Amino acid sequence: MNIGWYLAVSALIFSIGVAGVLTRRNPVVVLLCLELMLNAANIALIAFSRMHGNGDGQIFAIIVMVVAACEVCIGLGVVVALFRRRLPIDVDELRELHG
Amino acid sequence: MGAVLFFIAAIGALVGAVGVVTQRNPFYAVLALVFHLLNLAGLFLLLRAEFVAAAQVVVYAGAVMVLYVFVVAYVGGIDTAPSLRPPVSRGQRTLALLFAAALFAELAIASLGSGLHAIDTQGPPYRAPFGQPAQIGELLLTRFLLPFEAASFLLLIAAVGAVALARRRAALEGESEEARRLSIAEIVRSPRQLGTGTMAEAVRGVPGRGAAPHDVAASVPSGSGVTGGTDEKTGGGW
Fold first, then answer.
1. A37, A39, B21, B179: which sits with the fewest CB atoms below 10 Å from its CB?
2. Backbone phi, then psi, for B211, in 5-degree steps?
């Protein structure tokens, strides 16, 4: 398939992820939608890596996966800390991360 | 053949993505994301990125999603009790969909409408080391050594941060507003109060509240210097 098809799929998945981040209120699902957006970026990176015929884009995709793992780690840690404090697990009601 | 596999994987990925956004139960949303990631690994294979596809399946669909499943099981299905809160208003949902559609149009114009002639081709012919672990490893340790080290530091910082965030605290039992706040000052304060969940208390138990089960075994003079040595080290603070 042509590279353009992969870019179209990437753009679609990124838009779906954006819609999810904007509409969902559960922070766990918001994190899932962020994963969708990061993965859409990964498809585009690997498609461009194939287009150029060198491995730089694949290295970039692996680094993006590392960053996503860190984001999941911290985000789910925050969710667990919120749950322990019996705060509402709802991004509309959590208006501040006050230290 | 390649076109058929591409459309199967792409439609599967899109269905998984829509499932993540629309499922009310967070557990089903996680399962939809696993489906999405497996189809995405198929797309990576079609793009000849074998190592990234394998890493996607093992690391992402395996390890990271298990983390999500654990947290969803711990926090519980919050969206399954919709009567407590009003649903997201229709105006907000319409606005979000409009924004997403506008973003898709913009991305499609930016990527497909660019002057790149190569996106209408299937890329250069495949040469042997492309996408294999040998090439990835060589690039990571030569040209991209600095990003590689930065990523390892980032993982270390994230692990320490997660431990500091999700630490158990005895003060949470109190209902005062001050105790329920997330406090950075409390995290970095050292030495901390008794019963706030330090590593030393996990090993030895809290003084005056009964000892941990390990404490009995550690206090028996077993004659091996290893047990005593670790016991001395963990007495510090953490």
1. B179
2. -95, 160
Chain B residues near residue A36 by CB distance under 8 angstroms: 17, 20-21, 33, 36
CA distance readout (Å), B191 to B159, B237, B238: 21, 6, 8
Q: pTM value?
A: 0.76
Give me the residue label for tokens 């394998």. Answer: B54
CB pairs under 8 A between A and B: 249
Token pair 């250069």: residue: B124
Of these ranges, B87-101, B132-146, B216-230, the one predicted with the greatest mean pLDDT is B132-146
Check: CB of residue A27 under 8 Å from CB of residue A88: no
Closest partner residue to B166 (CB to CB) among A9, A61, A81 is A81
Size of chain B in residues: 238
A11-50 pLDDT, tens digit per residue, is: 999 999 999 999 888 889 999 999 999 999 999 999 999 9
The answer to whether A31 and A71 have CB atoms below 8 angstroms apart is yes
Residue B182 pLDDT grade (very low, low, confident, very high; cuts 50, 70, 90): low
Comparing CB atoms, the residue among B14, B21, B154 nearest residue A67 is B154
Of B11-15, B61-65, B127-131, B132-136, the poorest mean pLDDT is in B127-131
Burial call A29-63: b when 16+ CB within 10 Å, e when fewer: bbbbbbbbbbbbbbbbbbbbbbbeeebebbbbbbb
> Which residues, in sequence order, are CB contacts of B147 under 8 Å at separation 6+?
A59, A63
Point out which residues pair with B211 in neighbouring strands: B205
Residues of chain A with C-beta less than 8 angstroms from the C-beta of B143: 56
Contact B133, B55 (CB under 8 A): no
- Average pLDDT across chain B, whole number: 77
Runs of H (alpha helix) within chain B? 2-22, 26-46, 50-55, 65-75, 90-112, 133-141, 145-165, 177-180, 184-188, 199-204, 213-219, 225-233
